[in-house]
Prior knowledge:
The complex is a heterodimer.
Chain A: H1 7-21, H2 25-39, H3 47-73, H4 75-118, H5 124-130, H6 139-150, H7 155-162, H8 164-169, H9 179-203, H10 207-215, H11 220-249, H12 252-256, H13 262-271, H14 275-302, H15 324-355, H16 361-394, H17 398-407, H18 409-412, H19 415-428, H20 438-460, H21 465-473, H22 478-507, H23 510-515, H24 523-532, H25 536-550, H26 554-560
Chain B: H1 2-19, H2 23-44, E1 56-61, H3 65-79, E2 82-87, H4 91-96, E3 105-108, H5 111-119, E4 123-124, E5 145-158, E6 186-189, H6 194-207, H7 209-222, E7 225-227, H8 230-238, E8 244-248, H9 249-256, E9 264-267, E10 280-288, H10 294-305, H11 307-314, E11 320-321, H12 349-363
Parallel strand pairs in B: 1-2, 1-3, 6-7, 6-8
Antiparallel strand pairs in B: 3-10, 4-10, 5-8, 5-9, 5-10, 5-11
Helix pairs in contact in B: 2-3, 3-11, 5-12, 6-7, 6-12, 8-9
Amino acid sequence: MAADRNDNGLNKHNNSSTEVGGNSSPTLRRLLKRRWTDMWKGNPPGPILLLIGLFVALVMSVPIIYVIFQSFAAGADSWLRLLGGRIPQLLWNTISLTAAVTTAALLIGVSLAWIVVRTDVPGKGLWQWMMALPLVIPPYVGAVTYIIVFGPSGWARDLWEASFMYSVFGDYPFSIYSFFGVFMTMTLFTYPYVFLIASASLRKMNRNFEEVARSQGMTTAQIFFKVNLPLLRPAIGAGAILISLYVLSDFGAIAMLRYVTFTAAIYYQRAGFDIPSASVLSLVLIVLTIIILWIESYTRRKNKFYQTTNTYKAPDTLKLGKWKPFAFMYVFSVFGIAVILPIFVLVYWTVIGAEVGAIDTDFFGYAWNSILVSGMAALLCMVLALPIIYLKSRHPSPVSTVIDKLSYSGYALPGVIVALGMIFIFNNHIPALYNTFYLIAIAFVIRFLPQAMQAGEASLSLVSPRMDEAARSLGYPAWKVMFKVILPSIAPGVLAGGALVFVSAIKELPATLMLRPPGFDTLAVRVYYEASESFYHQAAPGALLIVLVSIIPLHYLLKKY
Amino acid sequence: MKRKWLLGSLSGLALIAAAGCGDNLENAAENENERNDNSAANEGGNEESYVDGDGELVVYSARNETFVQELLNKFEADTGIEVNALHGAEPLQLEEEAGNVQADVFISNDLGGLEYLNQQGLLRSHDSDNIDTIDEQYRAEDNEWIALSARARGFIYNKDMVDEEDVPSSMEDLFDEEWADVENGYAITRGGNGGMIGNVSALRYEWGDDRTEDWIDSIQENAAGIFEGHSDIRRAVGAGEHAFGLVNNYYYHQQLEEPDDNNVGFVYPDQEEDEMGAIANAAGFGLVNDGPNSENAEIFFEWVLEEENQLEFVGESLEVPINTDLEPPYEEAVPFDELHVQDMPLRELGNYFEDTRELIEDAGLDLELR
């Protein structure tokens, strides 16, 4: 629509209005045109580029807008019933879990980062990337392995009953199906976000500050709290937001551990096709998400830290001395529980599965379906990210900012809400596509496009706008500049973005579960189903495959932070 | 370097894992053999004239996938029609899709859901020569749905933990708080489960809404485990994680067939003269109005009513076939005519379906898991 105001559009509009309007229009036209050019700082984009950008932004935000609209249409009755009974309980479940997991993940992530980056813990170099490995295990897979190990009939119980513990303390006391079980699982598979961000920021920290502090007689502990920690604040904030948004959106692990948060409740309400309740709960969840985003941006605005770079000295390594064994034990036990144990369980059951023939043609069919929808989503994301990042970086204006922000709406919000909106829209308005696997691919694009955008933007920022200008001045039209000049230089970044999207899509569970057409199961769906039926030998091969695929972008993630 | 190290340790893990497989391997092999046996048996198939069928059939099923998939595989093998199944579908999805019908056949484990859809005009009637093998009380008025296998609600219990006398003998018993104190407590399913919906509807028929609401509150308060499905309950009770659980009778049959954890018993509640009788329900199917492949749906209708396929419908669930001429797949199953069963006509469940869901939702049992 905005493209109408562009040259051609304006002329046409003008021609028709001269007949009616008379003389005032040339002035109006000039005024509008100047406003328009000013808004783009003298560099408005071509109409096609702008149209594509607006279209993408619209597609990205429409499902959520639709859910919000539906929740208001649900009627006072639904609202009152839910507000009276369900919402307070769900709020408590959700907020307490989010707060607990975020806090614990921050503690573990920051402490591990500090030990690994700043001290002489044995194996320092290895730990720097090994502590990030839990990222390759999707929490619902992690939850399955913990049920196998710590569950009421798990390996830990067998060990307990075989040992003296049984005679001393009685029955196996640990319940994985409890707040603590969910809390532990979510924490162990999300702390690496904090670890990565905090490590990066610790590595960049200037030694001069610490030396000043030390010369004032501060101890290492005091330095940590007075110097290091404040400088880590931005990193901690960024990690906290990632983790709390993740906890809000997770479905698989939470459902398997029999806990109910907003996301799980929305899923169950949708499964029973209680659409009004599902939309009302979704709106509350959207508000929760926005509050978290707002808190983060608010605290970031209030805390600004500057480090001078010209006197930068790399931080020195602290000697652990007698604490060395303890630090090592700590690092190792986190690694043991969050990486070795799950991988061991998966390999164990995969071996059993392979021996009894669970890796059959069906299995490859599911794997192919996963690759099909994820690959489609990755391709679409790479293509759609280009016009948006190009607009943002080459034609900055309020319009491109809005397009950019709208593109993030599906990324920040849980997959269940995106899927819910898509069910409404396609069932009621685009029936031809409803119940086809294209819906899953579109949902993935809405969820993960920003991953492709971020990767592309990083590359594009390295290509000077002068290059475009040079190409334009030689007579290339805009699209040709895009394909001949820009694309070859940013291709690696775009491909990395595509790979990220592919992996996120392979792991994705709730939207796939909600949108899959009859007869179309993916690996993630099968892992979830087989594991919830306790057919672990059926679930493990798929889960292991997902974990292996997730290793692909790890290299990229480690470089990013 | 790093990569090699990682590979090395992974393969080390694999070796250790492979060395320790043992028991689990046997169980898994058994499970896998069952899956394969059934598909092998199906290939022999029957030599009817279906083989020239083509196209597809879209099946929505609310039953557990394990019980349904083999039936659908056999249909594919017998008729050459490709089946696309959506497992875990709930009745209201069909209502939501009424303007954009996706499914040809709906398979349900709760007649309430089927009759509800029928009352909304979403199912259609069809006929077959074999229709009379199913007693009229197990069919909709114009055969919009047909029930093929019956089940009754009751308590599966772990014989190592409790004696039969220490298990509730009636639904009313569950009002009592003492059941919260049984060792390891008892288990129920989430209120969204079809079996639980039927159970609550039957109680509303018997007691009215207020008393039923109290009953829901009691079990929600006192149950130690609230699970997504009944299979979880039978496994948990078998393993001694809970003393007893409220399930359908065939889950007891299934647990007895397990290689271990099978020392379980079953109590049919409310069997005394003056009591209400066991709550019954049935699994069945219906053809969806305006489905995209209506001819194939009719083929399915006729095919599934063949006696051999009625048995396949019962399949691994080990329910009791409604056709009394058929030998139950689980021989020791108590025949329905030897049970004191609640006198409610099963069709009646359809009248209760919608309000029951609301009642359960108000109590919060549909979202309770523990």
